[in-house]
Amino acid sequence: MEGFDIEACLESMEILVDTREQPSDRAKKRYQLFECPYQRATLNYGDYTYNLTLPNGSKYFDTSQTVLGDVVIERKMSLEELSGCFCQSRDRFCNEFERAKSHGAKIYLLTENASWEKLMAHHYRTQFNPKAFLASITSFCARYNITPIFCKEETSGKLIKEILYRELKERLTLGKYDGD
Which one of 28, 52, 118, 121 is most buried, by most CB atoms within 10 A? Predict the structure, then answer.
């Protein structure tokens, strides 16, 4: 598209936060770290994705509908919560990633207050065996093309914004939204 302004599209980026995420004080602190606009929307999978204003002035996603993000971040607050997803909630967790995969979405699995070292040393408060935990994460990476990220709680907001911004910039540079 002639006159397509990548910088203007990047400046229009806003983060969509899934409506199922509870607006706790912890969440509000994370949102402040985005340093860009955000709004709540119903996401079909994941907790965060981006939206942008296209050169024709329309939004890429109509947030009155369920959003099928191109890139999503699934956030967990701890290894304990992630453990529950692989154990008690495994079917629901698999179904969410199957939906994302069927739409060709790229998925980041961001877990706060975690590290590979904590996982392998069983420094979490569940009975999930570290070898089984590691195998679950790495098999999901292979099966669903997931990129796992471990970070401290206080950096998750900045990471969410940076990941989504860089993914959007790459897609814009490759012409993903030129004809939309």
Answer: 52
pTM equals: 0.95
Contacts of 85-89 with C-beta under 8 Å, sequence gap 24+, read 86/128, 86/133, 86/136, 86/137, 87/126, 87/128
What does the alpha-carbon distance between residue 138 and residue 152 come to, in Å, rounded to a whole number? 21
Domain that holds residue 156: 6-173
The answer as to whether 72 is a domain residue is yes
Print pLDDT tens along the chain (180 aa). 455 789 999 999 999 999 999 989 999 999 999 999 999 999 999 999 999 999 888 999 999 999 999 999 999 999 999 999 999 999 999 999 999 999 999 999 999 999 999 999 999 999 999 999 999 999 999 999 999 999 999 999 999 999 999 999 999 999 888 755
Return the CATH number at 116.
Answer: 3.40.50.10130
Question: Is 180 among the domain residues?
Answer: no
75 vs 135: CA distance, rounded Å:
19
